[in-house]
């Protein structure tokens, strides 16, 4: 065997060490899945083996779960259902054989155990975990459109009860060692490095007591904790659970529904049948377009981008050690925090010492939170905070590898800051702008070295949002791009690279969602209907709510700026006058002043009653057909803009377009992103539907010629613009 080593000691305890060669972390690759049944058979058949301890040979963790690359690559049998079921059953059958082998089996969990990694240990009779707060135990499959398919749905439920297990699985929640013990997921927490010894000690006590070991659920008197569907308390879990899943997913995620079905049906039958039920639902889920799209975008593509897939080939690797942030407001302070967390010396400049200090105080506040949650030691807190210098003095910029400006969104102020900063910069140092709307090529005109000028667009709140949109100006060099990407990777965020355009990629496409909600308002759709339909598409919030969050005055300002820049070419968007009246006549700016489409003086917020005077309601009826049509309308409008960005060369890599859309503006994750949405719909059908919307709602739904050409040839984005082809 390649991935497992077996050592039988003098007491007859077989220590199985899981160590996938050539990988930094253990995952359940196709090779591993093949070998698990082999060692299970071996320890079962060998009379000299009295008990089994399973542990990991990696310092990085126990096992991070299934190898999704292998899985997406058809490891489970492609589209042949029976072959896929058989492949899926291989692991479940082997783990079932392990837990019924009659010999005691213990897991010595010496690092994180997630997904299939935790499921391996759940098939052991005893679990010991080391006391290290970096260790997480959990079943996060739901985050990539799947659910646990290695017995997790059945074993966790039987261990801790339907409600806690369903919550852990539907949220993909992970537990620290002591919390896992508290929840009943593991039996024992021991000091670091002691898990194998502790597991062996347990085996010896079992052997001394006669050697038998059975799982609680194979015991005759087993009762499901909290009760099953025919128990008065248990039935509540399913009734409420069903409603909660519906509320959270609007039926967009087959994984969540199938998970519930697997649990509901599985807990009513013995374990062998339960595992077969789980495997069937798992394979069914894996074959859905939703799971395929989510695995590709949210796992595989994101991982590739996180490894620098879009970094210019051949550019020397850089390591930003000192970075200056100018503008210590909301964004600047957030950027300073993530930099300091990555060990970067940070100069934080503002106009007054007071403003700069305020920015540093925000960094301190975020660090204190980590300290109080035990996520950081006092020593690390002190050294991290000491990396940030708050000042007004531009001389401090000297020696910086990079400067990022996050001053007011004003061309003149940004130009002034650029000039003052550049005189302090050494050759090769990069100047980045965090502007959210101003084209980079125009801002670079203030620079004496536009080849080193680049857009580095963070999202708010900076500490939580994982994406950074890098924008190339007309003259930005590949060397500056490589340095910007290296910086983004160093602060552990996901970079996408786009070309200059009004609103770049993310703000431009997100804006269409908000604007389409406004168009619906003008057409007379009831505001509650608009936002409910928005949420039902799988977007995080409705378009009116999101408009309030962004701020109506900001949206008016952007519209006016666009009008001034475009002149005659500007076409006002439907509903624009409603926003103008709300801001200019009524002082309703959105969430920030507690008054927008919603009133915020109540909890939860309530729709503003005066809205119907500005936009009289004509459509208040929500038939399923209308809802479906309008849901698609909101998704199509965004996807059409993405296609336009593609045709204009703003984006050119499907991975960046999909991952960027989900991480930046929450484009319905179940779709796998807008490009996957178009590809899976089929471009021919997509174009036909977009044409229908264009006829009903206007030019903005008009798809670019590129899409028509691709549709005529039966092409897909991922087929025609496959990332591998681009790299070759
Ligand atoms: P903010 O008003 O909170 O902060 C701006 C800071 O810049 C203030 O502290 C101000 O004193 C300082 N400043 C102004 N002129 C300066 C000068 N000449 N020298 C030094 N400091 C100066 O604004 P913010 O929300 O942090 O936005 C900053 C930039 O980031 C803007 O370009 C904005 O478009 C962009 N941005 C904002 C968001 C967001 O959600 N707020 C998201 C992405 C990008």
Ligands bound here? nicotinamide-adenine-dinucleotide
Strand content: 5-15%
- Please count the helical segments: 31
- Alpha-carbon distance between the termini? 35 Å
The number of E-state strands comes to 19
User: What is the 3D form?
Assistant: globular
Biggest sheet: strand arrangement: 12-11-10-13-14-15-16-17
Mean pLDDT across all amino acids: 95
Q: Percent range for helical residues? A: 40-55%
Structural class: alpha/beta
Low-confidence stretches: none
The main β sheet shows up as:
8 strands, mixed
Question: Could you tell me the radius of gyration in angstroms?
Answer: 28 Å
Give an overview of the whole structure.
- Helix content is 50%, strand content 11%.
- The chain has 728 residues and is of the alpha/beta class.
- The strands form 4 sheets. It has an 8-stranded mixed sheet with strand order 12-11-10-13-14-15-16-17, with helices on both faces. The chain has a 6-stranded mixed sheet with strand order 1-2-3-4-6-9, with helices on both faces.
- Strand 1 and strand 2 form a beta hairpin.
- The longest helix has 24 residues, at 624-647.
- It is globular and about 85 Å long.
- The two termini are 35 Å apart.
- The model has no long low-confidence stretch (mean pLDDT 95).
- Nicotinamide-adenine-dinucleotide (NAD) binds at residues 326-332, 349-351, 355, 406-409, 413, 417, 434-436, 458-460.
- Nicotinamide-adenine-dinucleotide binds at residues 326-332, 349-351, 355, 406-409, 413, 417, 434-436, 458-460.
């Amino acid at each position: 065997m390649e991935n497992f080593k077996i050592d039988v000691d003098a007491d007859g305890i077989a220590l199985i060490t899981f160590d996938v060669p050539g990988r930094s972390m253990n995952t359940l690759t196709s090779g591993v899945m093949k070998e698990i049944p082999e060692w299970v058979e071996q320890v079962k058949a060998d009379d000299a083996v009295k008990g089994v301890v399973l542990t990991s040979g990696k310092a990085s963790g126990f096992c991070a779960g299934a190898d999704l690359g292998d899985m997406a690559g058809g490891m489970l049998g492609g589209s042949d259902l029976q072959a896929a079921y058989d492949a899926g059953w291989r692991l479940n059958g082997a783990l079932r054989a392990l837990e019924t082998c009659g010999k005691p089996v213990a897991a010595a969990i010496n690092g994180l155990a997630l997904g299939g990694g935790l499921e391996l240990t759940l098939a052991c009779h005893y679990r010991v975990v080391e006391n290290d707060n970096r260790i997480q135990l959990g079943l996060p499959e739901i985050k990539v459109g799947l659910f646990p398919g290695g017995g997790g749905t059945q074993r966790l439920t039987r261990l801790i009860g339907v409600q806690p297990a369903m919550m852990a699985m539907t949220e993909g929640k992970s537990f620290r060692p002591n919390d896992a013990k508290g929840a009943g997921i593991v039996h024992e927490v021991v000091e670091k490095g002691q898990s194998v010894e502790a597991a062996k000690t347990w085996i010896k006590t079992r052997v001394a007591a006669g050697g038998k070991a059975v799982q609680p659920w194979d015991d005759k008197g087993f009762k499901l904790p909290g009760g099953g569907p025919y128990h008065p308390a248990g039935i509540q879990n399913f009734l409420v659970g069903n409603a909660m899943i519906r509320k959270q997913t609007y039926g967009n995620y087959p994984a969540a529904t199938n998970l519930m079905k697997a649990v509901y049906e599985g807990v009513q039958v013995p374990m062998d049948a339960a595992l077969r039920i789980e495997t069937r639902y798992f394979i069914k889920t894996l074959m859905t377009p939703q799971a395929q799209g989510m695995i590709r975008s949210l796992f595989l593509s994101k991982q590739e981008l996180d490894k620098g897939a879009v970094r210019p080939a051949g550019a020397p690797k850089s390591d930003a050690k000192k970075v200056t942030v100018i503008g210590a407001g909301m964004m600047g302070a957030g950027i300073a925090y993530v930099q300091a967390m990555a060990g970067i010396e940070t100069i934080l400049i503002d106009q007054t010492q007071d403003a700069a200090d305020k920015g540093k105080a925000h960094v301190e506040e975020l660090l204190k939170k980590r300290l109080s949650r035990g996520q950081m030691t006092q020593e690390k807190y002190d050294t991290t905070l000491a990396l940030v210098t708050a000042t007004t003095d531009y001389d401090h910029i000297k020696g910086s590898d990079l400067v990022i400006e996050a001053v007011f969104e004003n061309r003149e102020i940004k130009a002034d800051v650029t000039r003052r900063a550049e005189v302090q910069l050494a050759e090769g140092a990069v100047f980045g702008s965090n502007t959210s709307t101003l084209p980079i090529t125009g801002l670079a005109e203030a620079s004496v070295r536009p080849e080193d000028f680049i857009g580095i667009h963070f999202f708010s709140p900076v500490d939580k949002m994982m994406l950074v949109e890098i924008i190339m100006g007309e003259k930005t060099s590949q060397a500056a791009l490589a340095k910007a990407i290296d910086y983004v990777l160093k602060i552990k965020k996901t970079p996408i690279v786009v070309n200059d355009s009004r609103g770049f990629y993310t703000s431009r496409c997100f804006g269409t969602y908000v604007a389409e909600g406004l168009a619906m308002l003008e057409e007379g759709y009831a505001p509650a209907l608009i936002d409910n339909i928005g949420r039902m598409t799988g977007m995080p919030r409705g378009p009116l709510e999101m408009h309030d969050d962004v701020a109506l005055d900001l949206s008016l300002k952007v519209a006016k700026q666009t009008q001034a820049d475009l002149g005659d070419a500007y076409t006002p968007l439907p509903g624009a006058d409603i926003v103008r009246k709300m801001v200019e006549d009524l002082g309703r700016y959105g969430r920030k002043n507690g008054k927008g489409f919603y009133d915020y003086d109540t909890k939860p917020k309530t729709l503003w009653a005066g809205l119907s005077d500005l936009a009289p309601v004509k459509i208040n009826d929500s038939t399923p057909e209308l809802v479906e049509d309008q849901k698609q309308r909101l998704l199509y409008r965004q996807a059409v803009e993405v296609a336009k960005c593609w045709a204009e060369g703003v984006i050119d890599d499907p991975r960046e377009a999909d991952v960027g859309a989900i991480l930046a503006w929450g484009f319905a994750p179940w779709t796998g992103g807008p490009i996957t949405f178009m590809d899976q719909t089929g471009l021919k059908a997509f174009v036909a539907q977009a044409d229908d919307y264009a006829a009903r709602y206007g030019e903005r739904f008009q798809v670019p010629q590129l899409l028509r050409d691709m549709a005529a040839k039966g092409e897909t984005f991922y087929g025609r613009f496959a990332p591998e082809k681009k790299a070759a």
